[in-house]
Write a structure and sequence with these properties.
Radius of gyration: 16 Å
Largest sheet: none
GO molecular function: bis(5'-nucleosyl)-tetraphosphatase (symmetrical) activity; metal ion binding; nucleotide binding
Protein name: bis(5'-nucleosyl)-tetraphosphatase (symmetrical)
Structural class: mainly alpha
Number of strands: 0
CATH architecture: Orthogonal Bundle
Strand content: under 5%
EC number: 3.6.1.41
Number of domains: 1
Number of helices: 11
Keywords: Hydrolase, Iron, Metal-binding, Nucleotide-binding
CATH class: Mainly Alpha
InterPro entries: Diverse_Catalytic_Enzymes, HD/PDEase_dom, HD_domain, YqeK
Length: about 210
């Protein structure tokens, strides 16, 4: 992947100015900052975490038809929930944009971008960092539950992913929304992993 430099970061932010609104750009910068801090707390590569944070929402504002077309062209597996709510594809399509527009080839960074919305069973620590930063950055609110999850995210990535999935599922149920199967699979994997540390070593190679 390209070296994470200020000039390349500026190129990305300039591109974002014409593709996402200002409020979304502020969110991206908060995710970048929180991802870097979580990475430092958990011994994950901070540069990769920051880079994935800057890039994670490249396709956030793409129209549904474009998201579906790009996903199909890339051969991504589509669940009926994706078809009903193509916005959920923005993470995986964003990884395609990061690769094709900005030359990102680092497989862990691309995975972290692709996994930041729905998670993925067995995803590595870098993906967990970006997933949590996206869900818990300060702009998301200041409820007691969010404060608790933020504190947990700095202490235990595995438990924080499991409990953040729980919170997301609760909100979707309260709103009578569809729940993507991958969110449930992610939740179950990380709940089990939080109780069986033998699941972690092969999946959590951050180098």
């Amino acid at each position: 992947m390209p070296i994470f430099s200020e000039s390349l970061r500026t190129d990305v932010l300039t591109w974002l100015e014409t593709h996402v609104p200002e409020a979304r750009r502020h969110h991206i910068l908060r995710v970048e900052a929180m991802a870097r801090q979580l990475a430092a707390d958990h011994g994950v590569d901070q540069e990769r975490a920051a880079w994935a944070g800057v890039l994670h929402d490249l396709a956030k504002c793409f129209q549904p038809a474009r998201l579906l077309a790009m996903a199909r062209a890339a051969g991504l597996p589509l669940d009926p929930v994706d078809e009903a709510n193509p916005h959920l594809l923005h993470a995986e399509v964003g990884a395609i944009v990061a690769r094709d527009r900005f030359g990102v080839t680092d497989s862990q960074v691309l995975a972290a971008i692709a996994n930041h919305t729905l998670g993925r069973p067995g995803m590595d620590a870098l993906s967990c960092v970006v997933f949590l930063a996206d869900s818990l950055e300060p702009g998301r609110g200041d409820s007691p539950q969010l404060r608790r999850l933020r504190q947990l995210s700095h202490q235990n990535l595995v438990a924080a992913v499991a409990q953040t999935c729980d919170e997301s599922i609760r909100k979707l149920i309260d709103k009578h929304r569809l729940i993507h199967p991958r969110t449930v699979l992610t939740r179950n994997w990380f709940w089990q992993a939080s109780r069986q540390s033998t699941l972690l070593p092969s999946a959590w190679l951050s180098a």
